[in-house]
Design goal:
Elements (H helix, E strand, L loop, with lengths): L2 H9 L6 H13 L4 H14 L3 H12 L14 E6 L7 H11 L3 E6 L9 H6 L10 H11 L1 E5 L6 H11 L7 H14 L4 E8 L8 H17 L3 E8 L7 E3 H12 L8 H16 L6 H13 L2 H12 L20 E6 L4 E6 L1 H13 L13 E4 L6 E2 L4 E7 L5 H11 E4 L9 E5 L6
Parallel strand pairs: 1-2, 1-4, 2-3, 4-5
Antiparallel strand pairs: 5-13, 6-9, 7-11, 8-10, 8-12, 9-11
The structure holds uracil and calcium ion (CA).
């Protein structure tokens, strides 16, 4: 086999077989195939696409490029969740403990936030002492005891993806549905879970700008999962505004604690998305027969405080100071130099909140990283005071900024203001969740 012939085949629109895909991926990881050939191949994929079978072969090959987690030490169906990356997306910190409280086994490996989306690991590390780098056997022990633990991806998980992603980033090949699907699913499958719920975001703050693309990506990932013998369900959710009100690390932990303490209204999007994610996990785990059954269990885990206790215990077992995981003490992690209200300059209806810009504004305050080497300030960020469709008067607060370092404050405020459009007419309400895709939807 010659690499150039395989690039030619893909560029001419033909499907590659599994051996051909393995030749490319293994060759690239070993260093036999140079970056320029892999770049050309991935551009051919971006332009010509891949069949679901091809994408499954790519996923499988990528998955086996490194270590595959062995969760066989845990009984029952191991659960995982993944979000394609959102702003104000605090769902993991709420859903994972709630599902554990309902009897689920949640062994989750998370990634770090880069750019405008926040990462669960950074949020966890905002609680003093908490470690997300835990050896595999200890991770399994914690999950066995508490039903839930969240750690960073192991070093050697899907090295092919690390190499390919770095290349995609600089060759305009990120926005390819088969490449995104194989990137996400290879990591999820290598993490060892039996059942996975995916939250595929669509809108201004998401990878998938259009709903059509989000549906295609979701169906493809569910299908890859079932071809590999795993259960996968996907929600398609809106990212035309931040999901929760908080954008920042300790701020988002606080919002998760609020949810677990029953302080978040069931009509709030964050609550609803958490419920739907939890419902899918409980059903796939065989812990609920119906949606309503699953919902009542999840609600009971909020009302009894058991969900919050699971999060506290998880933090404790991961070396953190669990006393912060309470509404009484979490504010101590939010002691910033300045809290600044950003006020509206006119009256009207909030018609647009561009999530990406809101996320970037929070990042400029120090809540996120621009490059991998940047450090995060866990206390900073912003709390939205409005959602799309709300009416706002002149000089009323749109958000509160939590600020320590003011170097980029002005820039952050400017970007934040650009993100929000206030109009005279009341905009139509957009749904928060567009669909739930399960295996049956891909047949
Ligand atoms: N997230 C991933 O892990 N990979 C992609 O390609 C896009 C989003
Ligand atoms: Ca996230």
């Amino acid at each position: 086999m010659r690499t150039v012939d395989l690039i030619e085949k893909k560029a001419s629109g033909f499907a590659l077989n599994e051996d051909e895909i393995r030749f490319l991926i293994d060759g690239y990881v070993k260093g036999d195939i140079p970056d320029y050939q892999m770049s050309a191949f991935m551009m051919a994929v971006r332009l010509k696409g891949m069949t679901p079978q091809e994408t499954a072969s790519l996923t499988l090959t990528m998955m086996h490029s490194g270590e595959v987690a062995d969760l066989s030490g845990l009984k029952g169906i191991k659960l995982d969740k993944h979000s394609t990356g959102g702003v104000g997306d605090t769902t993991t910190l709420a859903v994972a403990p709630l599902v554990a409280a309902c009897g689920g086994t949640v062994a989750k490996m998370s990634g770090r936030g880069l750019g405008h989306t926040g990462g669960t690991l950074d949020k966890l590390e905002s609680i003093p002492g908490t470690s997300v780098e835990i050896p595999m056997d200890r991770f399994i022990d914690i999950v066995r005891e508490n039903g839930v633990a969240v750690i960073g991806q192991t070093q050697n998980l899907v090295p092919a993806d690390k190499m390919m992603y770095a290349l995609r980033d600089v060759t305009a090949t990120v926005r390819s549905i088969p490449l995104i699907a194989s990137s996400i699913m290879s990591k999820k499958l290598a993490s060892g879970a039996d059942a996975i719920v995916l939250d595929v975001k669509t809108g201004s703050g998401a990878f998938m700008r259009s709903k059509e693309e989000a549906f295609e990506l979701a169906r493809l990932m569910v299908k890859i999962g079932s071809l590999m013998g795993r259960k996968v369900a996907a929600l398609i959710t809106d990212m035309n505004q931040p999901l929760g009100m908080a954008v920042g690390n300790a701020l988002e932990v606080k919002e998760a604690i609020e949810l677990l303490s029953g302080k978040i209204n069931p009509s709030d999007p964050l609550y609803e998305v958490c419920m739907l994610l939890g419902v899918q996990l409980l059903k796939m785990a065989g812990l609920a027969d119906s949606d309503s059954d699953a919902r009542s269990s999840l609600r009971a885990a909020i009302d009894s405080g058991e969900g919050l206790r699971r999060l506290q215990r998880m933090i404790e077992l991961q070396g953190g100071d669990a006393s912060y995981v309470s509404l009484d003490k979490i504010d101590e992690l939010l002691n910033v130099k300045k809290k600044i209200d950003i006020r509206s300059t006119k009256e009207g209806y909030i018609s647009v909140i561009q999530a990406e810009k809101i996320g970037t504004a929070a990042q400029m305050l120090g809540a996120g990283r621009e490059t991998k080497a940047d450090t995060i300030d866990p206390s900073v960020g912003l709390v939205m005071k409005v959602r799309c469709g709300d009416h706002i008067g002149f000089d009323e607060p749109l958000a509160t900024f939590y600020v320590n370092d003011e170097t980029r404050l002005e820039e952050a405020v400017k970007l934040f203001r650009e993100a929000i459009v206030i109009s005279d007419q009341k905009p139509e309400r957009v749904p928060m969740v567009y669909a739930v895709i399960t295996e049956n939807d891909t047949l």
